[in-house]
Design goal:
heterodimer, A: 238 residues, alpha/beta, 6-stranded mixed β-sheet, 4-stranded antiparallel β-sheet, 27% strand, B: 291 residues, mainly alpha, two-stranded antiparallel ribbon, 11 helices, binds adenosine-5'-diphosphate, binds magnesium ion
């Protein structure tokens, strides 16, 4: 029996008059990669912002490990084991690579744990080790994405929420990013992956949800969904 | 040798401006607001010193009391006047800050009257003479405090956990929250530090000229704001540099007989020239497009 790590129930989110999420529900089980796919403006980022407390829903609930976190402020959620790698990476450009990573560990108290995490990140991303004293703003797009993911790992997360990590990267780097996402699962972590690159996302994820105009219209096993006629037409360019 | 004297005076005057400007610039960078009541914290610190002197008569105790009182006041002003407006239009926040400024000045007038108070006990007189160079003791003390504050602030921002969090919040508030940073706490710390520095700046003003009125902080507040803009608002090294530059210009201008009456015009003229050449200020970052 799989353990539910994240459960979202009937989320309704508004931006003023705009009804951005119209009662969506889904769940993420421990050890899975779950992808959330959908066109631009479907509400993917809004979903992630609501889960990690940057915005709060008008209706509905978010449960993490069975605990309700619907109104928990964003800064408390990282410490609970869920980390959000935001759209557009949002690294701190004026700080060094090293300082960015340290900020990733802000919610951790244990010095040894932080040191071990840093070493692991430098092993996984040697480029970050080479450039540790450089200002983060001087990194290339691919390196900035590595930094955003490495920074997230510094919080010792159980669940990593990624918002379009492959956005704006060259095909070679896109492949690399998806390999890294797979490595998270191999390291025992759980991933909620938002992507416009549906094909790649479904090729590495266990399950997928399709979001259209604030509503989840399809869901299921990634491999089965990828065969679905409507999904192929709308998202896989087939 | 007049020039050297003016330069030394300018450095110390600039140090005082820098202390105030650091508060302005930190609050701007982190809370994204212009705290026009910042100068009035200096004045309140002055009255805190005045009251403490009446009670204990020790200048150093008075300074510590002023710092503590200003920190509490600064944090309360943020908590009760500015925090409820988070997310409101910048204009609403600006008007509130101006309101807080008048409120503090009026309260001081009600409590202490409009006749100036003389804080003779904190005044420091006497000079050191090296050949034709005369340096007042208060100048030396101000310069020493300036150096200590600048070094401490630089180390704090670069190497401490809350300092790094401040930089993160000023760059990207939501991304900082995703790191686990409690932005409200960081904003409160920012006001606390700014207010403590304002109290020290007030002390530096009063050891030189011990006349205290409820508008003590008004002109230094405007000068420090100018200094923050010259240096690049939002940048702490910029506030330090801008404060020193402005202080030196002011002192040199005052030392030249023909120019002295126009000193304020010279200062603001230089502000305009600097902004024409470098619109983001000397050390300010030109706004880069987010990729
Ligand atoms: N801050 C905002 N204010 C107003 N509307 C917003 C805001 N953010 C997103 N929206 C709207 O909400 C909808 C969903 O946006 P978003 O979650 O960013 O979609 P996605 O990430 O799938 O591209 C869009 O119609 C968008 O225009
Ligand atoms: Mg998005």
């Amino acid at each position: 029996m799989s353990e539910v790590l994240l459960k979202v129930e009937n989320l309704n989110v508004y931006y003023g008059m705009i009804h951005a999420l119209k009662g969506i529900s889904f769940e993420v089980n421990k050890g899975e990669i779950v992808s959330l796919i959908g066109a631009n403006g479907a509400g993917k980022t809004t979903t992630l912002h609501t889960i990690t407390g940057l915005i709060h829903p008008k209706e509905g609930r978010v449960l993490y490990k069975g605990e309700e976190i619907t109104r928990t402020p964003a800064h408390k959620i990282v410490g609970m084991g869920m980390v959000h790698v935001p759209e557009g990476r949002r690294i701190f450009q004026g700080l060094s690579v090293y300082d960015n990573l340290l900020l990733g560990s802000y919610s951790r108290k244990d010095k040894n744990e932080i040191k071990e995490n840093l070493e692991k990140v430098f092993v996984q991303f040697p480029r970050l080790a080479e450039r540790r004293t450089q200002l983060a703003g001087t990194l290339s797009g691919g390196e900035q994405q590595m930094l955003a993911m490495g920074r997230a790992l510094l919080s010792s997360p159980e669940l990593i929420v990624l918002d379009e990590p492959s956005m704006g990267l060259s095909p070679l780097l896109v492949g690399e990013v998806f390999e890294i996402v797979k490595s998270f699962r191999e390291a025992g972590k759980t991933v909620l992956l938002v992507e416009q690159n549906a094909k790649k996302a479904m090729s590495i994820s266990d399950r997928a949800y399709v979001l259209e105009n604030g509503v989840i219209t399809m869901s299921g096993d990634s491999r089965e969904l990828a065969e679905d006629e409507r999904v192929r037409k709308a998202y896989l360019g087939a | 040798m007049d020039f050297i004297n003016a330069l030394i005076n300018g450095l110390s005057l600039g140090g005082t401006y820098a202390m105030i400007a650091i508060g302005y610039t930190m609050v701007y960078g982190i809370a994204k607001m212009l705290n026009f009541a910042h100068g009035d914290i200096i004045m309140v610190g002055g009255y805190a010193m005045y009251v403490t002197l009446l009670l204990v008569g020790q200048p150093i105790v008075a300074l510590i009391a002023a710092i503590v009182f200003c920190v509490i006041l600064g944090v309360c002003v943020e908590r009760f006047a500015y925090k409820p407006l988070r997310g409101a239009s910048p204009l609403a926040v600006l008007i509130t800050a101006i309101g807080v400024s008048s409120l503090l000045q009026s309260l001081a007038q009600i409590a202490f009257g409009s006749a100036p108070k003389m804080l003779m006990a904190v005044q420091i007189s006497g000079t050191v003479t090296l050949g034709s160079i005369h340096i007042a003791y208060y100048t030396i003390l101000t310069l020493a405090l300036t150096v200590v504050i600048m070094v401490a602030m630089t180390l704090f921002v670069k190497y401490s956990k809350p300092g790094r969090a401040m930089v993160a919040v000023s760059e990207d508030r939501d991304a900082a929250r995703l790191m686990g940073i409690n932005t409200n706490a960081i904003i409160a710390i920012t006001f606390a530090i700014g207010s403590a520095l304002a109290a020290v700046a007030g002390y530096c003003m009063l050891i030189k000229s011990p006349t205290l009125t409820n508008t003590l902080g008004a002109m230094p507040g405007i000068k420090a704001f100018t200094a923050a803009v010259i240096g690049g608002i939002g940048s702490i090294p910029g506030a330090m540099l801008g404060g020193i530059v402005l202080g030196v210009i002011e002192a040199i201008s005052l030392s030249i007989p023909g120019l002295a009456p126009f000193t304020d015009a010279v200062e603001f003229g230089i502000l305009i020239i600097i902004l024409l050449v470098k619109p983001a200020g000397l050390l300010g970052k030109a706004r880069r497009e987010k990729v």
